[in-house]
Amino acid sequence: MRLRKRKNLSERIQQHSEYLLIDESPFLRRLKEEERYSIIDTKKVFGNDNPVYLEVGCGKGGFATDMARLYPDVNFLAVEKSSNVIICALEKAKAGNLTNVKFICCDASNLGYYFEKDSIERVFLNFSCPWPKRKYENQRLTNERFLKVYDLFMTPDAEIWQKTDSAMMFEYSVMSLSSYGYTLKAVTCDLANSDCDYNVTTEYERFFMGEGKPIYRLEAFRK
């Protein structure tokens, strides 16, 4: 169901513009290829050369802002396609006076236009839409189409960390990541009862766990 546009959305985004690095133009595809790039200088943005982690599909920003508070020596970038949703993330970051988290409003397939090569050390995929119908398989964020996008900016030793409540999505991700050349570790089909002691929960995760649903989790890396 489509969300109703939030009241005073444009004004609210403008008031929190220091946290929004990219607000993607709906006319991006009309531009020539060389005109689409707007590379983010993370060292300039954050004022340091700390590691940079990326969350793709951050929703209302609870995970990204919690991580930023817990890990002040890591810089966090978080992506959300909908400005109607990302405004909540911007407001969370500003309310917490956080300096190590910024946001990008764009389609995940366009991330290669915004990041330098070897600039991201970890990618988080938290409760991404599973797109259960086979005809939409290439919309899944662990589909080869997106893995190729991540290749454009991930460091050679970068990792992908995924959590989902969808058994179908998890099984698909295991196969897709493995076929693409990733090695998997910390794989669990029941996160709540696993030995993972460094998990930071998301809004969706708390909801699903409250309903007793199992949470699936993995970490993927290249040797």
Put the structure in a nutshell.
By secondary structure, the protein is an alpha/beta fold. It has 7 helices and 8 strands.
Write a structural description.
The protein is α/β, with parallel strands linked by helices. The chain has a domain at 9-116: Vaccinia Virus protein VP39 (Rossmann fold, 3-Layer(aba) Sandwich), CATH 3.40.50. The chain has helices spanning 9-15, 42-46, 62-70, 83-95, 144-151, 167-180, 203-210, and strands at 20-23, 52-56, 75-80, 101-105, 120-126, 154-164, 183-188, 216-221. Helix 3 links the parallel strand 2 (52-56) and strand 3. The model has no long low-confidence stretch (mean pLDDT 95).
Q: What is the molecular shape?
A: globular
How many DSSP-defined strands?
Answer: 8
**What structural category characterises the helix and strand content?**
alpha/beta
- Helix content, binned percent: 25-40%
Tell me the strand order in the biggest sheet: 1-4-3-2-5-6-8-7
- The CATH class label of the domain at 9-116 is Alpha Beta
| Fold-level CATH name of the domain at 9-116 | Rossmann fold
Low-confidence stretches: none
Q: Sheet bearing the most strands, described?
A: 8 strands, mixed
Multimeric state of these chains?
single chain
Give the second-level CATH assignment, the architecture of the domain at 9-116. Answer: 3-Layer(aba) Sandwich
CATH superfamily label of the domain at 9-116: Vaccinia Virus protein VP39
Span of the ends, CA to CA: 41 Å
Q: What is the CA-atom radius of gyration, in angstroms?
A: 17 Å
Percentage beta strand = 15-25%
Question: What average pLDDT do the residues reach?
Answer: 95
Given the structure, what is the number of helices?
7
Please provide the ordered H/E string of secondary-structure elements: HEHEHEHEEHEHEHE
